[in-house]
Design a protein that fits this description.
Blueprint: E1 6-13, H1 23-31, E2 35-36, E3 39-46, H2 52-64, E4 68-74, E5 81-84, E6 86-88, E7 91-94, E8 99-102, E9 111-113, H3 118-127, E10 132-135, H4 142-157, E11 161-167, H5 171-175, H6 182-185, H7 193-212
Parallel strand pairs: 1-3, 1-4, 4-11, 5-10
Antiparallel strand pairs: 2-3, 5-11, 6-9, 7-8
Helix pairs in contact: 2-4, 3-7
């Protein structure tokens, strides 16, 4: 029996701010081209660029017409897989020189909720010994922007399941943080990158299983 193959768009970010390495983007690239449950993973790297990232994401969705989208990001300071629940229609960023505070879309909905089977994903990750929790605040930087755009596109064209997940720092990243004082560094949570990749595979598998029911 022939089974029609569908696509899952899996995105991650490249380096940004002080993070010269970003496991979310590396895992997306590593899984690019893999097939899971007759679903081809299209792994793509997104640059942390306000506004431009939405155009790139929309182009990927138009080109690959994914039935599923899982967007990944990096959240330094978090010690578990963060299953993001709500994307808000706001962009806020401040540095030493300027401050940005604006809606992503003037007439867009105030918020979108994740379309991923978060309850099942959380249980599956924990059953595999991987700490996972719900998060109700993805930030107001580009991670939230991507999450909001993913859900906007999902609502617009009918993507079956879509959402955003934050990953913690890798252990190697924390070990090599020479610019951070040791007393601070010892308190920074992390995971081995192999566990992060395993977590992403579980998220994909659980999402596809939930869709097939």
């Amino acid at each position: 029996m022939n089974h029609k193959t569908t696509n899952m768009l899996l995105t991650g970010f490249g380096p940004f701010l002080n993070y010269t390495y970003n496991p979310s983007g590396e895992i997306a690239k590593k899984l690019d081209g893999k097939t899971i449950m007759n679903t081809t993973i299209v792994g793509k790297l997104l640059l942390v660029e306000h506004k431009e990232v939405r155009k790139v994401l929309e182009n990927y969705v138009e080109e690959y017409k994914p039935a599923f989208v899982v967007a990944l990001g990096l959240a330094g300071g978090r010690g578990c897989i963060s299953l993001e629940r709500i994307a808000i229609n706001r962009y806020y960023f401040r540095n030493d020189k300027e401050e940005f505070d604006e809606p992503l879309y003037e007439n867009g909905p105030s918020a979108y909720f994740s379309g991923l089977p978060l309850k099942e994903i959380k249980a599956s990750l924990q059953n595999h010994g991987i700490p996972a929790e719900y998060s109700f605040f993805p930030d107001t930087f580009v991670s939230n922007e991507v999450f909001y755009e993913v859900m906007r596109l999902s609502d617009k064209i009918g993507i079956r399941k879509a959402g955003f997940v934050h990953l913690p720092l890798t252990t190697k990243q924390v070990v090599t943080m020479e610019h951070v004082h040791y007393a601070t560094r010892e308190k920074i949570p992390s995971m081995e990158e192999s566990m992060l990749e395993k977590a992403v595979r579980i998220i994909i598998q659980t999402t596809l299983n939930a869709d097939s029911k």
